[in-house]
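Mods, move this if it's the wrong board.
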Amino acid sequence: MKQKIFVDGEHGTTGLQILSRLQQRDDIELLSIAHEDRHDQDKRRSLLNAADIAILCLPDEAAKEAVIMVDDETTRFIDASTAHRTHSGWTFGFKELEPGHAEKIARSRLVSNPGCYSTGAIALLRPLVQTGMLPNEALVTINAVSGYTGGGKGLIAQMENSSADNAITAPHFLYATQLHHKHVPEITTYSLLEHAPVFSPSVGRFPQGMMVQVPLHMEWLGAHSPISIHAALEKHYHGCEHVRVVPLPESAAVERLDPTMLAGQDTMDLHVFGNEEQVNLVAVLDNLGKGASGACVQALDLMLLHQS
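Not the wrong board. Structure tokens:
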């Protein structure tokens, strides 16, 4: 019997991307709600209870409400909001987090989909902290740029409709200038850091793509070098289908790194740039691919392998 999948919030940016990945599949049955009924609580409740797996593409409070709409514990959830990302009862949905984590996702009833920036930052930091190469008390800075689709329909309209009163005409802008961003708690938690990083995100005038940078002074890394850092990342992600640690010679040949180079793909590239004194760790991904909808479908596929 085919598993029933309901995308609650299917008319939003992330939901539409998820549906585009699922609509042509014949191994699942998609449950859907009409656009005009998307706020009808009774219809949503019915679909949530009918689903084998519900994917929540909702604001945080709405995601919390959706979970308690289920009458029993047969429906499994993937939550794309930030509501449950550091909740102890939920499994973090970055399948490459550590060996065996994909199997944990597969068995879980409650899975939280990682944030886009978080995916890049955690991918770079966790292997180094987990192996002791980077002390967990390290003071870390993260700089990032995302495509404007990460801001949802509101920001998309501001960036694409130049005649609107609230149009944004800047080619690039910094935000979260007060150093509060919803991804910081999950980055801190799953990177195994004692201190929250200084996180400086920005948006570029391109729809999809992302680049996350973690610059480090080598003194934080003891006797290690860019070569040993690269080796640690290679070891951690060996055999991973959706994360590629770029060979050092290939990274050394890079003069300009394009944050849109993986737009439309559900994979992520990790680069190590550096010398004896400094290193810059860089993740490139699609903010709506491996950074959101693509990762969600990857978690879904794992959960389908372990049907309740």
